[in-house]
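[job 0412] stage=complex_fold ligand=S-adenosyl-L-homocysteine status=START
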Amino acid sequence: MSGRLAVVGLGPGDPRYLTPEAEAALGDAEALYGYGPYLDRVPARSGQARYPSDNREEGARAAAALLHAAQGACVAVVSGGDPGVFAMAAAICEQIEQGPESWRELDVSFIPGITAMLAVAAKIGAPLGHDFCALSLSDNLKPWDLVERRLDAAASAGFVIALYNPVSRARPWQFGNAMERLRRHLPETTPAVFGRAVGRPDELVSVATLAEADATPADMATLVIVGTRETRVIVRPGRSPLVYTPRAAVEVSA
Ligand code: SAH
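[job 0412] stage=complex_fold status=DONE, emitting structure tokens
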């Protein structure tokens, strides 16, 4: 079977964050699949077909791309950030596992990208400087009580928490509920970094406390990093603050 499929991470938006490997894979592709706004970030090339789809159609998009590659084409599926972080790489693997045996023979590669939490962290210092975890607040693919249990476990174990998908129009109350949950384990003064559209022209990065977090604007393009008891803010005259989590951890009480 001569078809190839590359699952390509585009990074958070700034073209300088696109790796040379990702750029080469996009250049090689005869067909591009992805969520429309992500495809719009890829410069047009003559002879390259584009198949945009909605962001809720990941399974169908993955199947369509695999089918196309199985017919012998060189196909790229794009994701924002890293394709392995709440994105297309797992959707492709799911389809390969469930799909026809022939899909297992395809040449499939996964090309990493800079994920949002790393891009946001780099804008403000080192909030992920010690143990951290990443959680999606979307309850499209898991029940909300599981999100709550994971928030409890992460905060009580002393992890910095990167929150993907904090808010959407269909999920208006979840973010406030999550912040209330975290305040059960963490002081109200715990720093929370809000990074919106990082790497894009409308980028906005700010720092709030956990007490202020509910009232801080957040949307689907925002990633929130909630610190630990150790996370610190360095105020600097004439410059934006630095937020960092020291490398030496203190013992968390049970
Ligand atoms: N695969 C992507 C994540 C997809 S989930 C990655 O690795 O980054 C989508 C969520 O990612 C958004 O709701 C937001 O929380 C975060 N996100 C994606 N791009 C972002 C950006 N440029 N700035 C801030 N957050 C971003």
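Helices lie at 20-28, 36-39, 58-70, 88-98, 116-124, 144-156, 174-183.
[job 0412] exit 0
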